[in-house]
Amino acid sequence: MHVRHTFLISLSLFASPTNSSDSLAVCDESFEISIGDNDLIWKMQAYNYTDTRVKGPHINIKRDNGDPKSVVSEAKLDPQTGELDWERCCDRPMSNKMKESVDRFVSKLKKDKTLWRAARVQLVRGIEDMELDKKHGSKGDKDIATRNLKEWQILLERIDKDILD
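Below the sequence we write its predicted structure tokens.
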């Protein structure tokens, strides 16, 4: 197994109800791990609340050829199903043989504790943001947060208990 770590440091403005000028330094750690099927690797997508609250934590599945445009598919952890499984989604055009390789690759992700730790970080951040939305968001944001918060909390508890324990 081949492991590469990438550290992305970004400064983002964090609007809080008490002081809208607070800024928060965010460190996103991304991992690329090659498991060996057609030299595919995964990379956790950077946390983006508006994207993550819809899809849940999700990763890019790429060919390990150094080309940033080599994404062939994505896999997501769906909080609504409550299952501790990754599912392929958002495929790019590819052959049936490549789909089979991607499916084998995705089936191996459940054993990857590094991936689960990265997903856990995104779940925690999503839960924190949903709690803020429930208090200070627009009506639509409050509705989404109310609808999703419990599912995300349950999934986080299951990851802690069943996978990372």
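The mean pLDDT is 78.
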